[in-house]
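sorry for the late reply, my laptop died twice this morning and i had to redo everyting from scratch. anyway the thing you sent over, i finally got around to it. pasting the sequence first so we're on the same page, its 494 residues, then the predicted structure underneath. double check i copied it right bc i was rushing
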Amino acid sequence: MNKNSNTSESSSLDLKGDAFISGKFCKSISGDSFETLNPANGLVLTSIANCDAADVDLAVISARTAFDDGHWKNLPPKERKETMIRFANLIDSNIDKLARVESLETGKPLSNCKSLDIPKSANLIRWHAEAIDKVYGETAPIERNKIGIVTKEPIGVVGAVVAWNFPLYLACYKLGPALITGNSVILKPAEQSSLTALMVAKLAVEAGIPEGVFNVVTGGARVGKAIGMHEDIDCVTFTGSSEVGKLFLSYASQSNMKRVYIEGGGKSPQVVFADAKDLDQVAESIVWGCFYNQGQVCSAGSRLIVEQEIKEQLLIKIKNITESIIVGPPQEDTTQIGCVISEEQLIRIEGYVALGIKEGAEVYFGGNRLFNETGGYYFQPTVFDNVNNSMRIAQEEIFGPILSVITFETKEEAIALANNTKYGLSASVWSQNIDKALSVAKEIRAGQVGINSYDSTDQTVPWCGFKQSGNGVDKSLHAMDHYTVMKTTWIEVH
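ok and here's the structure:
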């Protein structure tokens, strides 16, 4: 379907849709491009370079040359730190524009982008910058006349592929530890949300990061495959669906056995026992744990596993809170939930609602498109009751504002339900009995488990997953390990 251009918004922001290689914006080698849309109205924002393997080759040459010349990797850690802090400060000083662009391209509330997403992105860069000159090597305990020095060196050229739901924040998950440890990076943003990545690439050069150290190659699956298969990329770090993550593992096995780190999908359980202390607080956490960012969150708590005796009471509170949420245009200050990323995603969500009904679940609240007259992709927060954990709506990642309600009667049943999924990203346990809560949390197979909270996170704490939620670590000092290789240097004293 052809869409008219949203020219007033695009021209006022001077949006750049070209790839960024060797410190310069450039068209795709083929000259091909695609349109990025504003999901709030379906109108075109601008054209994006539709790159392919030839462009990836060019970016790899640029990145490898920059890595080998040593102008970045051989800088003293203190100097890399100062440059990266300038980079973070430039992101902060451009918050208004970055937030507006990200809101326009993703449909998330502008207020969230301005107060959370962009500042947190800058902080990721700054935190890793501040840490780099406080990381030490090791000396091995060996024979008296020998010294074994253990050091960590940059791995080389890193391919970073990120999802569309938190475009800049997820990119900075990778950029912070990868750049500060001395690597060159080729970033592939999602097709639906490329613009802020391109904006910060320019800011990186302004901050003093050498040309070629940070490149952005835009495009779709063929760019991702070219990165995954490239013989001269040393590491791929990926955030997105588990299905695509598996492709990157396959690409590595077919090429140069590059390291691959994946943060995949989730179908996260929020387990609520009847002795939970404050059901109002529980309901608030469940609602936002599932519906935040229109439910387009890998760690969304999309399965409510609740003790049977309090289900009705809790559902009433969830319904009341959900009804009060303001769904509306992303640019309005009062909007709490915006639109989903695309018409394709909207159709997918509708398909899961129809499937849930067919499977025998009951729509307790919601289930409909909203604001069709705008041309945008809005969907009502939806709660399914009487869900069996074997249903597809309880097992498959929908990536939309849909909560499945499942009941249990014993602690053992709750644990079994929570773990009965191929994913293992996040979870929560709600109980004022701390012994019970701790024992259940220990048994849940997930990378992060909240007790009487959901989705708590901090830069100092690893973000990771079990099972098909991935093998990677973002945040914390542990993230730097992905982008370094360990070396032992022997010295014999005669």
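Residues 269-458 form a domain with the Aldehyde Dehydrogenase; Chain A, domain 2 fold (CATH 3.40.309.10).
thats about all i looked at so far, will dig more tmrw
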